[in-house]
Amino acid sequence: MMGAGSGVAGARSSPAQHASWNTYFKATTGSSCLSVPGLAQGSDLIPPPARRARMLRRIVLLLCLLLPCSGQTLQQEAERIMNATPVIDGHNDLPWQLLKLFNNQLLLPASNLTQLNSTHTNIPKLNTGHVGGQFWSVYVPCDTQNKDAVKRTLEQIDVVHRMCELYPDTFACVVDSAGIEQAFQNKKVASLIGVEGGHSIDSSLGVLRTFYRLGVRYMTLTHSCNTPWADNWLVDTDEEQPVHHGLTAFGKMVLEEMNRLGMIIDLAHVSVETMKMALNVSKAPVIFSHSSAYGICPHARNVPDDVLQMVNSTGSLVMVNFYNQYVTCSNTATLADVADHMDYVKKVAGVESVGFGGDYDGVTGLPTGLEDVSKYPALVAELLARNWTEQEVSAALANNLLRVFKRVETVKASLQGTLPLEEPIALEQLEGQCRTSYGYTTSTTTDASPALPLPAALVLALPLLSTLLP
């Protein structure tokens, strides 16, 4: 704000100088803030020079929060807030880009995250954007379902772990809320893993538990395809029809096991019926890791008002997506349009229900002003310009997610001693030819030879039957 060599702090007071405070404000801060009562020409309330400099800083900040001021001042205030409370973003697809661009070869010179510029995300951009926590998506496409989804997902989990190993000064792989807070203190990016799509577990509770042990801390119940136990968002469009009308009995078991494990339930990408059923079934709050408000942009990937009200009543969280199609339902958008969604979620569900879920490196069209992960402070500055308080901004940046995560951990603690669920999904509910049926057979034969199919057995029995008949 005040230049170190301005000489104002050490100057003697004079009526002529005090008559030019407005000029001083504008010259040193670029602010259009109004003059300050009590510091006008001839006032006998003028403090000593050194104290006056400190007061000026505070008064300019206060007035710039209350009155229209320059974007530069708001940007500086955003940076100050984010130095103390960096953003935790709900969804980033950098691991998918590393697969597509480099086949997960992180040691290639071209894949160096300090220099990579073909993606929305790299280490310098994360630092500039004050990113303190990131759920890295270990997304694999729907066409892996009933094929190699589990293998592919394991490989993407491995990518996140290797990111933390290769760049230990930047990333800290963590698995709980305490780990996030410790990473904040250490000025590192708390790196968490989110599975994007229930097809990644291949309808197996055992795979779900194994993913948890490997560090996965949320799972999106579907991507843009149904699983054998949950409907995706496309059933709310003309493209598909509902199959399960939300969750099947096995789908409810998946949620119950996630609650027991302490894995966050993510409802981005699911149908409205699935949203409502999950919000009613889950014992813990849920998140929408990268979804926006249907009331602003009526896209089926967004969250409708009645669900936002359920988000409020369950203490859950909507982490607003930046993808143009979900922001304006068109190919173009601006930073202000994203702020409209955050305002809307705040109005309908409460400020405790708002978060950031940029979807960087998973989308092709981003708003002007939010082109990459370095731009989060600009969005925070816009919220400040809309009269969000520092407490409200800090809640959206990180504290809301931390609250949800801690509640998920509390529910997990309350379920300690509850045995893991073991009942498998019915074999007939599974699809695909690339699977075996071990464990599902009811045959208990002890003969070393396999049982003959019924038609063959009848053929062999016919000669014997003919000798017995008169």
Structural account:
- The chain is globular, with a radius of gyration of 29 Å.
- It contains 17 helices and 9 strands.
- With 470 residues, it is of the alpha/beta class.
Output the keywords:
17 helices; 470 residues; 42% helix; three-stranded parallel beta sheet; globular; disordered N terminus; alpha/beta
Rounded mean pLDDT score: 86
Number of separate strands? 9
Q: Look at the helices and sheets and give the structural class.
A: alpha/beta
Name the helicity range: 40-55%
SS summary, helix count: 17
Uncertain runs with pLDDT below 50, 5 residues or more?
1-45, 443-462
Rounded to an integer in angstroms, the radius of gyration calculated over CA atoms is: 29 Å
Shape summary: globular
Main sheet, how many strands, which sense, barrel? 6 strands, parallel
Quick summary:
With 470 residues, the protein is α/β, with parallel strands linked by helices. Helix content is 42%, strand content 9%. The protein has helices at 15-18, 21-29, 49-66, 71-84, 94-102, 123-128, 149-166, 177-185, 205-213, 249-261, 272-281, 305-314, 324-327, 335-349, 376-385, 390-414, 454-468; strands at 87-92, 131-137, 171-173, 189-196, 216-220, 264-266, 287-288, 317-320, 354-356.
